[in-house]
C-alpha cells in the first residue's frame, strides 16, 4: 500500500509519520501489518499505544494494535480497524 501514515498526538499538535513497510496481512477480517525497526519515532509511539490513527489514501481511520511480534531486528505490528470507532 502506498502513502500510509501514522498520526500521533504530540505536545505541539500532531505528528505524521510515513510507514514504508506495510502490507495487508488479512482481507477478512482486515489486518494491516507494519514492519518497523526499533528506533525513535513511530516504533516508540506504536510500542506504547493501544490504538493509532492511520491515514491511507488520504483518509484517516482509527486502528487497534492487538498483536506485535519480534522477528530478528524488526517488530511487526498488526493493526485492525477499531470496532467502536
What's the structural blueprint in terms of helices and strands?
Elements: E1 4-10, E2 13-18, E3 22-26, E4 31-36, H1 42-48, E5 51-56, E6 59-71, E7 74-81
Antiparallel strand pairs: 1-2, 1-5, 3-4, 4-7, 5-6, 6-7
Q: Can you offer a commentary on this structure?
A:
By secondary structure, the chain is mainly beta. The protein has one domain (4-81): Pnp Oxidase, Chain A. 8% of the residues lie in helices and 60% in strands. It is built from 1 helix and 7 strands. It has one helix at 42-48, and strands at residues 4-10, 13-18, 22-26, 31-36, 51-56, 59-71, 74-81. Strands 2-1-5-6-7-4-3 form a 7-stranded antiparallel beta sheet. The longest helix is centred in the middle third of the chain and has 7 residues, at 42-48. The chain is globular, with a radius of gyration of 12 Å. The two termini are 22 Å apart. The model has no long low-confidence stretch (mean pLDDT 93).
Amino acid at each position: 500500500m502506498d502513502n500510509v501514515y501514522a498520526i500521533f498526538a504530540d505536545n505541539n499538535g500532531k505528528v505524521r509519520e510515513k510507514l514504508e513497510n506495510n502490507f495487508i496481512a488479512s482481507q477478512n477480517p482486515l489486518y494491516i501489518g507494519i514492519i518497523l525497526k526499533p528506533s525513535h519515532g513511530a516504533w516508540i509511539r506504536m510500542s506504547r499505544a493501544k490504538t493509532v490513527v492511520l491515514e491511507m489514501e488520504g483518509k484517516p481511520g482509527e486502528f487497534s494494535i492487538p498483536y506485535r511480534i519480534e522477528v530478528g531486528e524488526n517488530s511487526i505490528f498488526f493493526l485492525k480497524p477499531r470496532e467502536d470507532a
